[in-house]
Amino acid sequence: MSDPARIEARPAQGYAGDITPQQAWDLLAGDPTATLVDVRTEGEWRAIGIPDTASLEKQPVFAEWVQAGGVPNPRFLEELRSAGVSDGPIVFLCRSGQRSIAAARLATSSGIAPSYNVLEGFEGAPGVDGVRDQQGWKVAGLPWTAGPA
């Protein structure tokens, strides 16, 4: 396990930086105050699966960045705060590492920091064949489980 204080994030504008899925896991495992926030939609959690952090004795926070139909979630910050997310480190995760950038920026600008983005997200961007699962949390071999029924 890496020392969470030694995790070097790729520099980014407006948030603490980008980290790999393995760095995210190491940070969550090594820092008792670190929180994972999954910003995908409920449909994605159900269809694709969710990170399994039970072995770390932590539960991810689930807060949709956008709601069904691609509508921005106007209660996003309120949902974070009501889940107890107030300071970091906070690790934001989405499907491919794009929505989580915006979430990390908003959290940082609202005083929830340090906030990180997980590069490649949960299952990465589609490859040239249009198929995902070529990068990301799942491909890195990090624990995950089927989403809620």
TrEMBL record:
GO molecular-function terms, A-Z: transferase activity
Keyword Transferase: yes
Domain of life: Bacteria
Alphabetized UniProt keyword annotations: Transferase
Domain Rhodanese: start-end pairs: 30-146
Keyword Transferase annotated: yes
Pfam annotation, one family: Rhodanese
SMART domains in UniProt: RHOD
Protein name: Rhodanese-related sulfurtransferase
